[in-house]
Amino acid sequence: MTTAFTTLHSLPKPFDGLFDGAERIFWLYLLASAAIALVLMLGAGSWPTRARLRAYWLSSDSRLDALYFIVAWGLRTALIVPLVLSVQTVAVWVLHGLNAFYDPPFLAWRYRSIVLAYTLALFLLSDLSRYWLHRLMHRSRWLWPFHRVHHAAEVLTPLLVYRIHPLESLLFALRHAVVAGGVTGVFIFLFGARLDLYTIFGENLFIVALFAFTANLRHSHVRLSYGRWLDHILVSPAQHQIHHDRRHLNSNFGSCLALWDWVFGTLKLPAQIQGAPDFGIGPRGARYSSVAALLMEPFRDLGQMMRRR
Asked: How far apart are CA 252 and CA 262, in angstroms?
């Protein structure tokens, strides 16, 4: 009984993310995003009325996101975490594979240089892999039904980042294990076990430095662009809002760096878009009005596609 209680007690709780710098809802990120939104609204003279705030925060999409946030935490804890490869396992596989063919060079770099190179390589390759998997979720007719649950929302709130189907969560967790484990294994082979990451609040230095404090504005109705030049390099909230516009779903797949969209031809800049965004996926989005629908509708779509084939 004591062991079972200890195990349950040690499991993460739904709102632990408020105090975890690796989570989007970390309190400092939320506070910084709210402060930036406040400054932008004051500058534009568009202070929201109580009715507008109530319509936003109590909308059907907002309520659904709050409920799904709890359900998704339970599914992730019970189903996804036990299925995902660990970064350490992949790193060991990669290291053993390299050792089978080559002798480790153990390059004599300075420790700080190794840590900086490891931190940067992990950030760049992780961000690039997120771009391609996100793009695949849109372009694959077999994966799009699962990603569509995220795009069905017509009201964007910070909790929308957690409205992800469990299958998609599993794919992105496996992506992280493969990329982080691969990079770690290569670096241990090259430099020995002298690895560490530069982090802020427990998250990769570059991720926090580039977008953490405005990341919650991406899933919001606060339009913030970084300017035409910088929007070619970094993903601004306005760019990601374009991605949620049903007219431009096949653009702006980047997570941190817009550079990948620019290089691979999927970049749409805020300056290129006229009029207000049209969030959601149109009338078809009405199918995703409950937690059960978010979980089951993709499988129904998949079944229909297979029957047609």
From this structure: 9
pLDDT of residue 9: 47
Residue 93, CA atoms < 13 Å, CB-side half-sphere: 12
Tell me whether residue 23 is in a domain.
Answer: no
As a whole number of angstroms, the distance between CA 69 and CA 9 comes to 20
pLDDT one-digit tens code per residue, 146-174: 999 999 999 999 999 999 999 999 999 99
Instruction: Count the domains in the chain.
Output: 1
Beta bridge pairs of residue 59? none
pTM of the model as a whole: 0.91
User: For position 104, what pLDDT does the model report?
Assistant: 92
* Residues of the chain predicted below pLDDT 70: 1-12
Residues 6+ apart with CB under 8 A from 180: 87, 90, 91, 122, 126
State how far the Cα of 82 lies from the Cα of 232, in Å rounded to an integer: 38
Q: Is residue 139 part of a domain?
A: yes
- What CA–CA distance (Å, rounded) separates 299 from 282? 20
Residue 5 is predicted with a pLDDT of 41
Q: How many whole angstroms from its chain centre is CA 246? A: 19
In a domain, 144, yes or no: yes
Spatial contact of 259 and 233, defined as CB atoms under 8 Å apart: yes
Dihedral class, residue 265 (left if φ above 0, else alpha if ψ from -120 to 50, else beta): left
Query: Is there a domain that residue 102 lies in?
Result: yes
Running DSSP on this structure, what letter comes out for residue 42?
H
Which residue is associated with the tokens 């079944």?
303
In sequence order, which residues have a C-beta less than 8 Å from that of residue 131 and are 6 or more positions away? 253, 254, 255, 257, 260, 261, 264
